[in-house]
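As noted in the main text, all predictions were made from sequence alone. Below is one such record, for ABC transporter permease.
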Amino acid sequence: MERLGTERQPAVFFKKRLGFRKQRYLFIYSCLLIPLLFFLCIRILPILYSFNISLREWDLLSEQKPFVGLQNFITLFHDPVFLQSIHNTLVYVAIGVPGQLLAGLIIALLLQRLNRSRGLFRTIYFIPYVTSVVAVSWVFRWILMKNGIINALLLHVGLEPQLFLGSPSQSIYWVIASIIWQSIGFQMLIFLTGLESIPSMYYDAAAIDGAGPWQRFRHVTVPLLNPVIVFSVIIASISFLQSFAQVLNMTSGGPLNSTLSMVLHIYNLAFKHFKMGEAAAATVVLFSMILLLSLLQLKVLNKKVDY
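Prediction:
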């Protein structure tokens, strides 16, 4: 009888432990299910529904939503304004992403060399990132007005005043400059975190081998920062592809649609012209661009480095 009792004790303990594991996993999965359902309802379902809208003649003023297939896409790609918005968006990405990453990396490298007041400078550079986009856009707009501060300084030194945001050839670059200025703090923080995670022994070994500052940066810092660079490039690219608030508040897409972004054009189609079908089709095009560009960047930039 004693042997039988001792044999049953491990079995009972194992059953209790198994029941406790089931309860724990049930609790974990139930906690994960709530945000998953929220994500599906707020993110996935609207995306799928936008695909449905893009295939219909969806006018907010009409009750009929007939299926038109790819007609909305054909109309978009025959629209010179939409093609101009694609061109402008690619300019935002091509100029803004390298400029933003380069500025953030330079400031991070300089801050890494500071021994005192590093936290103060980090806070100062990060403040614009958490400042209202609308406020920053209007400050830049006031500075770059015809009778703004910059033109006043140009006249003071004897130079000709510039149109800035009123020039079809200049305005897009000033919008890009405002976006870069506001996002420097985020990129600086990401790069500074990556720089501080690189072990100093690699730099010591490279210095012993006779590598100079540029060689250490090129062959040690950049390869070991590759995961950070990939993350920053993808985040910055998506941000510039979705440029909206700065464009709307600084130029409203003008002059002559020279700063019109795809997101602003989608906004105009949907809420000014009430063409929800074309707006949804433009959203699908933008979604495809973001997906393809992100996959391409992951393929090209993601390289494994072993030391």
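The radius of gyration is 27 Å. DSSP finds 13 helices and no strands in the chain. These features were considered when defining construct boundaries for the mutagenesis experiments described in Section 2.9.
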